[in-house]
Amino acid sequence: MDPDDPIPPSPKQVRAAPAQEDESPAPEELEETIADPPGDKSSRVNSAHREPGTGHPGRSHVVGALPGKFGRYLIECKLGEGGMGAVYRAHDTQLDRKVALKTPSFSDRDGPDVMERFYREARAMATVQHANLCPVFDVGEIEGVHYLTMALIEGHSLSDDLKQRTSYPSSDAAMMIRKLALALESVHKCGIVHRDVKPGNVMVRTDGDPILMDFGLARQRREEDATLTIEGDVLGTPAYMSPEQVNGSLDQIGPWTDVYALGVILYQMLTGRLPFTGSLGSILTKIVTENPTPPSEIHDVDPKLETICMRAMARRIEDRYSTAGDLASDLHRLPTSGESAARLEVEAETRPAVWGAWGLLLIGTSVVLLIIGAVIMAQQYPKTDVAEDLNAKAIPAPESTETLASSPPDERW
Predict the structure, then answer these.
(1) Model-level pTM?
(2) Which of 161, 196, 225, 326 is catalytic?
(3) Which residue, of 258, 267, 278, 353, has the greatest Cβ tally within 10 A?
């Protein structure tokens, strides 16, 4: 280990670390947040919702079991839940549309500033429009329960897709990551960092387009909560966390943190595996001390795409893409990336046809003009007139040699 590298957290400090170092959790287990204790998720969310700063249950602390009617919303079913809260399928009775309703779970250590930041970022997300972002419709509080509603995306999660496929074609992976990078860039410009980009937070619509979710629940942490010890709090999903997140360096978290997570997703799509495997503790250690195996050593990958992927996952922030827009630009330049390849293919197919048509048009026009010119000339100069004119302008015959010989020299020249 490089002496200048930060000291990684001990596996004993991580709450969810298994007892045996060589017991590798499944990839889906690594998508659970670190602070989630074992047991039923429903009880986990219910017990977590308390009045901020008090440590006592709020007026409506049973977050995992919302009533059938929740304000203007009719709750139809629960779609899922985790360390950050629960998600429901609901019907907005005022606007007559289906929505996804989320109820975040605030910790009893979260003060008013955390809740204020939640509302501020939710309102900011409501103003951001991008084709690959899930739009935020509403945010508020009903009977002590804070909620956020978003568009209900029909499709499946990228996490489910990854479980069914060993790898993706380079062009498909590059196109999807590029779209997600552009979506992140639009949000980063509003000063919001996701901090939990992972396949479980990406919905793949029925048309194949990726939609980035859960920006409304992204929030910063206070300095005392920014560790991975047993007293710590949720900072991200282990397998997709950047080195600065593992080290709890809040002052170093920025857009490049989300870029790292995109790099991990790209790696997983290209190789069919995560960059680091092992127990939870060993994975966190490897994130801050090791470089992942190059994708080309695992699967057939375009060299340029591999370079982009490895740069996105660089351990040092200064070696990584500083913005998601820079990552998207490099992916766009790839001749095999989805939209770029399609554009080049269309140009290659249409360019000869277009120039061929113009060439035929120009030749045809020239022939027609020549014919028209010939007709006009024939009408203005009939055959007899032309012959007479030529005879009239004929060069006179030279004088006979006798005349020239008898003439004085001065007269001849």
Answers:
(1) 0.65
(2) 196
(3) 258
